[in-house]
Amino acid sequence: MSFGVLCQTSKELANVLDSGDDLKELLTVTESGKNGIEQMEQRQLKVKRLQQALAKLGEEEGELSSIRLQENKENNEVISNLGKEKYSQVEGIEKLNAALGSLENSMREIDLESSKLRKEKAGIQHQASDALPKTKYSFSLYSNVTRLRWDYDTNDDKLQGFVTSLRDVRPFSLNLKEHSSHFIANYLWDVIASAKNSQA
């Protein structure tokens, strides 16, 4: 009940008391005044509850603002970290791309070198296939003329074998580290000559 209604009610009460009307009217006015006061108290209670609810909403809004600020701060940190990680990943990808390019260049060079070596190998094999029969023939010819036979089972630092004649076998064994190639050649020719002379 508003202040104006309360004033109106009190004026009516004063009029009734002044006029001397009957008691019923007085009770009616008193009852309506009571009702008005009760309504006013209820309204005040509602206003108080609304004020409390508004205060609580204000507190909750403050808490929500604080939470939002914290979340924004955390989100900004996450975004910053993701940006750094992205930058790091981009750098890593660039390094990998550079390494890949280098490897591709190396592979091209290796392929070219491999192709070149295959051609050289084919050329050498061709030369060897041409030279091998000639070498075998020359070896056979020299072996038959000189009657020199090599021992292939000796150490690498020894030259060993024998020279044959119709009546004689003359072995030889020379250390390659102790003798010069000139001495070895002369020695072998001497052994061959002595084997030939023993035939006569």
From TrEMBL:
InterPro entries, A to Z: Ndc80_Spc24
Magnesium is among the record's keywords = no
Gene3D superfamilies on file: Ncd80 complex, Spc24 subunit (3.30.160.570)
Swiss-Prot/TrEMBL keywords: Cell cycle, Cell division, Centromere, Chromosome, Coiled coil, Kinetochore, Mitosis, Nucleus
Q: How does it assemble?
A: Component of the NDC80 complex.
* Protein task: Acts as a component of the essential kinetochore-associated NDC80 complex, which is required for chromosome segregation and spindle checkpoint activity. Required for kinetochore integrity and the organization of stable microtubule binding sites in the outer plate of the kinetochore. The NDC80 complex synergistically enhances the affinity of the SKA1 complex for microtubules and may allow the NDC80 complex to track depolymerizing microtubules.
Descriptive protein name = Kinetochore protein Spc24
- List the source organism: Paramuricea clavata (Red gorgonian)
